[in-house]
Design a protein that fits this description.
This protein is α/β, with parallel strands linked by helices. It has two domains: 179 residues, Medium-chain alcohol dehydrogenases, catalytic domain (Quinone Oxidoreductase, Chain A, domain 1), CATH 3.90.180.10; 123 residues, 3-Layer(aba) Sandwich (Rossmann fold), CATH 3.40.50. 29% of the residues lie in helices and 28% in strands. The strands form three sheets. Strands 3, 5, 6, 7, 8, 15 and 16 form a seven-stranded mixed sheet that branches. It has a six-stranded parallel sheet with strand order 11-10-9-12-13-14, with helices on both faces. The protein starts with a strand and ends with a strand.
């Protein structure tokens, strides 16, 4: 069969992405053929497209989608045609009408979770899960800081952290985003204000915050170190403003025996059980009202360049999805 998919033949700006007709084989043993219902757009997709995280070319893009199983290969036991599933991570190629995926990277989507939420927030939700519960396990009574609190990961992190009993300080880079972040943060700071680290310290009784979750990168790195409590942790999980600058590890000692880590979702969902548990915990958080994720932007699959431009210009809030035309 054939399907429509976004492909790149060189790295570059959003215009390098092209909608192409590509062949699709029948699923091999252990594989599943999916008809995609909605596709998540994540900042890492822009890194793959631009070459910051280069891919072997030509390549597909996208890591996340909600889909219906159309056919299964030999030996597939966990899924049947008609099942609604989702995935986040693994090989790129989600920007497509149909896709072949290995069985062990799929998860069932509970009945109460809409297609768009599963497609547009699973990667962000699983990211929030491992950050909050495993990279730095947040405890009731702690004060934490989350950068880009109005963004897709930020809104989930902040809501979930409050449900865990933490006091949440969020940051945002525009007046509108600060208002939005105030919906799920106890306090909101403008990281364009050079004194935001001091403001964060004041909000934590002068002691500093226990952890900073930072998906912004270069623009917030030094300030993040300055607002941490002694033995606090800076968790750098993205670099929307550019890569964190090189630094001497002695800096961590000088600022309070701090910890710095750069985790990735793949290392926290490497096994089948880890993947199922991480996704399951996120879906559970939605079903019980701990997290109320929002899909804010929707683009047709063929308008993917506009989606990337909106994301890179920081015009977006919440999550962004692509909607493939019916095949």
């Amino acid at each position: 069969m054939q399907t429509q998919a976004i492909r790149i033949h060189r790295h570059g700006d959003p215009e390098v992405m092209q909608l192409e007709t590509v062949p699709l084989a029948a699923p091999a043993p252990g594989q599943v053929l999916l008809r995609q219902l909605a596709i998540g757009v994540n900042f890492i997709d822009t890194y793959h497209r631009s070459g910051l995280y280069p891919l072997p070319l030509p390549a597909g893009l996208g890591l996340e989608a909600c889909a219906v199983v159309e056919a299964i290969g030999a030996g597939v036991r966990e899924f049947r045609p008609g099942d609604r599933v989702a995935y986040a991570g693994g090989a790129t190629g989600a920007y497509a009408q149909h896709r072949i995926m290995p069985e062990d990277r799929l998860v069932h989507v509970p009945i109460g979770i809409p297609d768009e939420i599963a497609a547009g927030t699973l990667l962000r939700g699983m990211t929030a899960q491992y950050l909050l519960k495993r990279t730095f396990p947040v405890q009731r009574g702690q004060t934490i800081l989350v950068h880009a609190a109005a963004g897709g990961v930020g809104q989930i992190l902040c809501q979930w952290a409050r449900a865990l009993g933490a006091t949440v300080i969020g940051t945002a880079g525009s007046d509108a985003k600060q208002v939005l972040a105030g919906t799920w943060c106890d306090h909101v700071l403008d990281y364009r204000n050079t004194d935001w680290p001091g403001q964060a310290r004041a909000l934590s009784a002068g002691h500093g915050v226990a952890v900073v979750y930072d998906g912004v990168g270069a623009a917030t790195f030094h300030g993040s170190l300055d607002c941490l409590a002694p033995r606090g942790m800076l968790v750098s999980f993205g670099n929307a403003s550019g890569a964190v600058p090189a630094f001497d590890p002695l800096l961590l000692s000088q600022k309070g025996s701090l910890f710095f880590t750069r985790p990735t979702l793949g290392h926290y969902t490497a096994s089948r059980q880890e993947l199922v548990d991480t996704a399951g915990d996120y879906f559970h958080s939605i079903e019980h009202g701990f997290v109320q994720p929002v899909v804010q932007q929707r683009f047709a699959l063929q308008d993917v360049a506009a989606a990337h431009r909106a994301l890179e210009s920081r015009q977006t809030t919440g999550s962004t999805i692509l909607l493939p035309a019916a095949a």
